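Bench notes, afternoon.
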Amino acid sequence: MKQSALLLGSLLALAACATPPATPPVSDATVQAHVDAATRLASDDLKPFLALCKPAPATRPTVDAADLNAQIAKPSPPPGKAFDNLYWVGDSWVSAWAINTSEGIILLDTLNEGKEAARLIEGGLRRVGLNPARIKYIIVTHGHGDHYGGVNYLVSRYHPHVAMGAADWAMMETKPDFPTPIWEPIPKRDIEVKDGDKITLGDTTVTMYITAGHTMGTISPVFDVTSRGEHHRVMEWGGTGFNFGKDFGRLDAFIASTKRMRTVAAEQNIDVLISNHPNFDEAPAKLAKLRSTPRAPNPFVQGTANVQRALDVMNECGLAQHDRFTMTN
């Protein structure tokens, strides 16, 4: 009996040791712990993503017309070829990407307005040797005007199909996040994207993942590219900033999306992460490096572990912001 009691006591002691410690209440210390973790993960090469760790406003900001016009008016970097079949045609603060396939072009986003689309997308495609009349599909990564602004112009010129997350079509048509006359009228509803939907054009298939958070219909496209005979797999992260105010539904969705896509990156050996804003992926600087040292390794190729690390940085920044919002309840 005594031995049984001793055995029971030992088992209870082991069970107590196996119980995970209680999660500490949120505080400035837990916020800082997430920021510190993000900073360690970012190291030197992923520092641009740490902008996401800065405190976000508890109320949704409004569009400053003067600031937006100033952004649009800034000189734009030159367009460029990132891979054999992927081209950047953006402005100084927002990106558009063109996937060149055997049967036409799949365009990722359209900048702020028709004039920009004419100057930077049409003009940029011609500068890199592509014909804008070959645009067959436009994938809008999320329903904010700096990404759909040029759609109407391009549709009127070339009649491509337009794909957007179903939730973002609805948001734009009912209660836009950032209504402003600077951005042109919303495009006519066309393809409603669900998670995992694919667009195939010629020799290229783009798989569209819904990575809700920045908006609830944000799309992160995944597709293959080549460079110097080598194949790579690309993910464009479709929406990054916490500009939606203290909305735990969207913030929780963002955190979950980064965790999920970290797994997808591992499963599919995604080794390139690009953005729809060049301040995150530094696309113009990488294109300049490709032009100046064309025989050097392609700077856009990061490796799967580093793509996962970028998603971890965004995840930790999301957790830091979650704790900040929780403390303001």
